[in-house]
Write a structure and sequence with these properties.
This protein is mostly helical. The chain is about 45% helix and about 10% strand. It contains 8 helices and 4 strands; from the N terminus they run αβαβααββαααα. A two-stranded parallel sheet has the order 1-2. Helix 2 links the parallel strand 1 and strand 2.
Length: about 190
């Protein structure tokens, strides 16, 4: 896709916040096969996610988690994507063009032949974003956030960063095992 569109394209892998073993395997594969750039230090990945969570928690604690704040919406999206499988962020320099779940972000370049004619009039960035946004709306993915009760920073309510509706509040029990990715029977 990048070659056909005549644009430079790079990928940087930042991992997941809690899946250390799967992140190690992914970074090893990326490095061995020279697929893109990735942080080799899992500590850097941990700091990336910890900083995003800290920004959200600070805003909640100060009661300034403004639903009109574009940067907060992007942070909430990334934190939600981290909990819900693969995701990607597409940007040019420091400007975020679009974010999305792995399924729609991978489908967009796979469907390049369906939207490549729009590049002449809209440019590559907008053509990619528009096609991805169409797929994203059709996919109807959920957003979710997990707040540790011990942290004491659970908001009374929160709006979805995708559709801006008030999100439902649940209590969950969670046990994540990062050995094989399989859940063990009780």
């Amino acid at each position: 896709m990048a070659r056909a569109a005549g644009i430079p394209l790079e990928m940087a892998y930042v991992g997941k916040s809690h899946k250390k073993e799967s992140v190690r395997r992914a970074t090893a594969t990326i490095s061995v096969e020279k697929l893109s750039h990735s942080w080799q230090e899992t500590t850097l990945m941990w700091f990336f996610w910890a900083r995003l969570e800290s920004m959200l928690y600070s805003k909640i604690q100060l009661k300034r988690a403004d639903d009109q704040d574009h940067m907060m919406q992007q942070i909430k999206k990334l934190l939600s994507y981290d909990k819900d499988g693969p995701w990607a962020l597409f940007c040019r320099g420091s400007k975020i063009l679009t974010t999305g779940h792995g399924s729609t972000m991978l489908q967009t370049p796979a469907d390049f032949d369906l939207w490549k004619n729009d590049i002449a009039t809209k440019g590559f960035d907008l053509s990619f974003k528009d096609y991805h946004d169409k797929l994203h709306v059709a996919a109807n993915n959920c957003c979710r956030f997990e707040f540790p009760i011990a942290a004491g920073r659970i908001p009374e309510g929160m709006r979805c960063p995708e559709c801006h509706r008030l999100m439902e509040k649940y209590i969950a029990f969670l046990c994540c095992h990062d050995q094989t990715g399989l859940l063990e029977p009780y």
